[in-house]
Amino acid sequence: MTGPSLASLTRSMTLRERALVALRTAITSGQYRPGDHLGEVEIAERLSVSRGTVREALRHLQQEGLVTPGARGMLRVSQLTPTEVRELFQVREALEGLAVTQIIQSARGPEAARALREALERLQETVDAAVDLNAKVEADLAFHLLLCELSRNSVLLKTWRQLEGPIRVVIMSAAGERREVAMSASSHLPVVEAIERGDAAAAQRVLHAHMASAVDQLGIGRGGDRETGSD
């Protein structure tokens, strides 16, 4: 496992917190792939911490949905089925759709639209700069996080953040060229334009299309556990 060493993380954090950050980063950046086994001994040696510290960090990551128990109780990086991924993006669509509706219904629409346009500019600059994938994913999710923050609905925001880790894993697991299309600034622009017009219905339609397209572009909406009667 590469990524940030414990020494590079802030000294004010406890060993468990620093191990947690290092492990979370390794998973969400794709250094550990979905299905990879997470051995306590190996991780403890790499991070120079106790197995107990690693165990606590892994338990926390399990609560975040990034780690799941496999055969004989061995922990692995979570590997979502196609159905679970579609459901993940459906819930994300519902949350962000509610955020858009609440923004439009408030008096903050114009201010929110300006902030979101600035976030789109940062996303486009990041994509154009051909920086590493982690930076692109950060810029993409920053737009969606801001959308939820601007709703000023604390429960909505908290719920969205609980989905953030699994969303990152899904994105990092997709083929490179598919990720680029899904993270383009142009695919997000219609959401901002709908907010500027104060058209909640249009914003909902745009978000539905955006999420459906993301699932398709990421190559995760087909195959695997096909269900009877499902598309």
Keywords:
single chain, 231 residues, mainly alpha, Arc Repressor Mutant, subunit A, Four Helix Bundle (Hemerythrin (Met), subunit A), 2 domains, two-stranded antiparallel sheet, 2 strands, 3% strand, elongated, disordered C terminus
Give a summary of the structure in a few sentences.
Helices cover 65% and strands 3% of the residues. With 231 residues, the protein is mainly alpha-helical. A two-stranded antiparallel sheet has the order 1-2.
Question: N- to C-terminal separation?
Answer: 38 Å
Please tally the β strands and state the result: 2
Number of domains: 2
Spatial order of strands in the largest sheet: 1-2
Pfam families: FCD, GntR
Keywords: Coiled coil, DNA-binding, Transcription, Transcription regulation
Protein name: GntR family transcriptional regulator
Domain HTH gntR-type: 13-80
Can you put this structure into words, describing what you see?
The structure is a single chain. The protein has 231 residues and is an all-alpha fold. The protein folds into 2 domains: 6-77, Winged helix-like DNA-binding domain superfamily/Winged helix DNA-binding domain (Arc Repressor Mutant, subunit A, Orthogonal Bundle); 82-217, GntR ligand-binding domain-like (Four Helix Bundle (Hemerythrin (Met), subunit A)), CATH 1.20.120.530. The chain has 10 helices and 2 strands, in the order H-H-H-E-E-H-H-H-H-H-H-H. It has helices spanning 15-28, 40-47, 51-63, 82-105, 109-128, 133-150, 154-173, 176-182, 189-197, 200-217, and strands at residues 67-69, 75-77. It has a two-stranded antiparallel ribbon. Helix 1 (15-28) crosses helix 3 and helix 4 (82-105) runs antiparallel to helix 7 (154-173). Mean pLDDT is 84; it is low at 221-231.
